[in-house]
Amino acid sequence: MDKLLITGGARLSGEIRVSGSKNAALPILAATLLGTSPVRLSNLPHLNDVTTMISLLRCMGVGVTIDERMCVEIDASSITEYEAPYELVKTMRASILVLGPLLARFGRADVSFPGGCAIGSRPVDIHLRGLEAMGATIEIDGGYIRARAPEGGLRGAHFLMDKVTVGGTENLLMAAVLANGTTVLDNAAKEPEIVDLANCLVAMGAKIKGIGSDRLEVDGVAELNGCSWSVMPDRIEAGTYLVAAAATCGSIKLKDTDADSMEAVLIKLREAGADIELGDDWISLNMHGKRPRAVSLRTAPHPAFPTDMQSQFMAMNAVAEGISQITETIFENRLIQVHELNRMGANIALEGNTALVTGVEKLKAAPVMASDLRASASLVIAGLLAEGETLVDRIYHIDRGYECIEEKMQQLGAKIRRVPG
Ligand code: UD1
After folding, report:
1. Does the C-beta of 26 come closer than 6 Å to ligand 1?
2. CA–centroid distance, residue 412 to ligand 1 (Å)
3. Residue 93 CA to chain centroid, in angstroms?
4. Per-residue pLDDT tens for 331-380?
5. Strand-by-strand arrangement of the 415-419 sheet
6. CA geometry: angle at 21 spanning 111 and 309, to 5°?
7. Cα–Cα distance between 190 and 157 in angstroms, integer?
8. Which residue of 121, 122, 240 sits with most ligand 1 atoms within 8 Å of its CB, as the best mutation to test the pocket?
């Protein structure tokens, strides 16, 4: 198993390009199942999760052509299987996103029931109840969700999601675009990745009102076409590099990014003392060599502070001036990085879903273990801050979400390399 070896102490400086968004790419890849003609996707990030989703489409018989620049043409006219097998779903929970499109277009879907993961139990009850509201029958059998549409296809429905769910909103939106009649999804998630998916569906011929709001109104159409779509920039990858730069008192510029999707994170970085400038498609951050100030935060659905950026801010707060409080409200076990950070000399106390972080002058290198995608990013940041050599184990978690992390970090002056295990 590969590891990352990081020698701390360098201040990040320089310029890098932000990749396409993983969390937008995955639902958009699932949405290609809805098209009667090929969909061409560009700006897909080169990541294990994206490869897994493409393998999933392929194993259903979907035609996939990839060129050397990761532009992918997907033709779902040749589909022969309507199943997401256990072997793929167990490696990537987002496989559940094929449920809505398969059911809407082909009237049937058998998707292995995704289990919990390191950060929480992560049920999919809202996805299933929403599909039932559209007339689907759902059985759980042999570890699989076996969903069938009624005669004549899914029916439009008014569905109130009792919790804000990103994946649930995406699945139900993709089901609704081909349902008979109008569907209203209330208390919908409005993350920028959902906006990207919805706009891609509109480019395929879907009729969706309220994009970007918590009430999506969808008039079902008989058929969707193909389209060409460029996936939005990854706001979490961008945020991770900005926090890493702030924590190391550095100065960086990110290209091909979108500041509008990152307001809550940029507010917190400014509060930490960062000088931030924004352009059409770039963001620059400069700490002018100063140590960051501790910032308190509470995660919540968009447009509030994203749970996917919580652990990176914790690593920065670990060496910031002052005391901060970080409260996680989305996932029940998403403060798992605390123990590894404390092993590196951080001073973090846990109380329920809140971490109290007292900033220390320096962290000390230690061998640490990645446990989930974003917690791993916090360990990389901590490694950049620590005195000595930090070895981060189980970095397959990082590779699920960060394209070429060591190359990009090296480009910014970090001393980091991959050690084959
Ligand atoms: C997506 C993101 C993930 C991010 C999360 C929250 C992708 C591929 N992943 O995950 O990076 O951290 O949004 O922004 O886009 N819930 C239920 N019942 C359901 C569905 C969800 O109780 O049917 C709960 C979950 O357990 C969790 C909360 O709702 O506590 C939010 O989860 P959700 O927004 O669905 O997260 P994902 O879509 O899995």
Report:
1. yes
2. 32
3. 12
4. 988 898 999 999 999 999 999 999 999 999 999 999 999 888 889 999 99
5. 367-369, 389-393, 3-7, 415-419
6. 95
7. 19
8. 122
Quote the ligand 1 centre to 392 CA distance (angstroms). Answer: 26
Residue 11's contacts (CB-CB under 8 Å, 6 or more residues apart) are 248, 249, 250, 251, 289, 413
End-to-end Cα distance, the chain: 4
Nearest protein CA to atom 15 of ligand 1, as residue: 23
Q: Dihedral through CA 84, CA 86, CA 87, CA 93, nearest 10?
A: 80
Residue with tokens 């706009």, as numbered in its chain: 199
| Dist. CA 378–CA 384, nearest whole Å | 10
Q: Are strands 3-7 and 415-419 parallel, antiparallel or unpaired?
A: antiparallel
Least confident of 65-79, 153-167, 173-187, 407-421: 65-79
Answer whether 397's CB lies under 8 Å from 230's CB. no
CA 251 / ligand 1 centre spacing (Å): 33
322 CA to middle of ligand 1, Å?
32
Rounded distance between C-alpha atoms, residue 371 and residue 338, angstroms = 11
Give nearest CA residue, ligand 1 atom 19: 124
Token look-up 């730069």 returns 245
309 band by pLDDT with thresholds 50, 70 and 90 = very high
Name the residue with tokens 């961008």.
Answer: 238
Among 166, 173, 191, 329, say which to mutate for ligand 1: greatest number of ligand atoms within 8 Å of CB. Answer: 166
Rg, the chain, Cα only: 21
Instruction: For tokens 């935060």, name the residue.
Output: 297
Q: What is the rounded CA–CA span in Å between residue 274 and residue 290?
A: 9
Q: H-helix or E-strand containing 285?
A: strand 282-286
List, by residue number, the catalytic residues: 117
How far is Cα 61 from Cα 81, in angstroms, rounded to an integer?
A: 6
User: Is the CB–ligand 1 distance for residue 401 below 6 Å?
Assistant: no
Q: Say whether 343 sits in a helix, a strand or coil.
A: helix
Residues 237 and 403 sit within 8 Å (Cβ to Cβ): yes
Distance of alpha carbon 177 from alpha carbon 201, whole angstroms: 8
**pTM for the structure as a whole:** 0.97
> Would you mind telling me the total number of residues written for the chain in this entry?
421
**CB atoms < 10 A from the CB of 2, how many?**
15
Q: What is the 3-state secondary structure (H, E, C) of 183-214?
A: EEEECCCCCHHHHHHHHHHHHCCCEEECCCCC
Q: Whose CA is closest to atom 5 on ligand 1?
A: 166
